[in-house]
Amino acid sequence: MRPLHPSDPASIAGHRLLGRLGAGGMGVVHLARSAGGALVALKVVHAEFAQDGGFRERFRREVDTLRRVRSPWVVPFVAADPDAPAPWLATAFVAGPSLEEAVAAHGPLPPASVRALGRRLAEALRDVHAAGLVHRDVKPANVLLALDGPRLIDFGIARAPEDTALTATGLVVGTPGFLAPEQVHGGGPDAIGPPSDVFALGCVLAYALTGRPPFGTGPVDALLFRAVHESPDLDGVPEEPAELLRRCLEKDPALRPSAAEVARALAAPQDGAADDPHWLPEAVTRLVADRAAAGAALPDIEPTAVDAGAAGRDEGGATDADGTGTDGTGTDGAAGRPAEGGAADGDEEAEREGAAGPGRRRFLLLTGGGALAAGGGALALWRWRDGDGEASAARPAHTIALQADLSGDARRTGTAQLRGVRLAVQEFNARQDAPFTLSLLVRDDGGDPQRAAATAGELTADSSVLAVIGPTTEAAAEAVLPVYDRALLPLVSVTAGAVKLLVLGARSFVQARPHNSLLPFFLSAHLRGTAGSRTIGIVNDRAAGDHGWEIAGTLSKLLNQGGHPYVPKVVSGRYGDFGPAIDALLSGGADSVVFAGLHERGARFARALHERGFTGPRAAAHGLLDPRFVEAAGEAAEGWVIAAPALDPAEHPGAERFTAAHRARFDAPPAPFAAEAYDATGLVAHALRGLAARRRTRGNLTAAIRGTSYRGITQTLSFSEKNGARTIDGTGVHLWRVTGGRLRYTGPGTPVIPG
Question: Which residues carry out catalysis?
Answer without folding.
Answer: 137
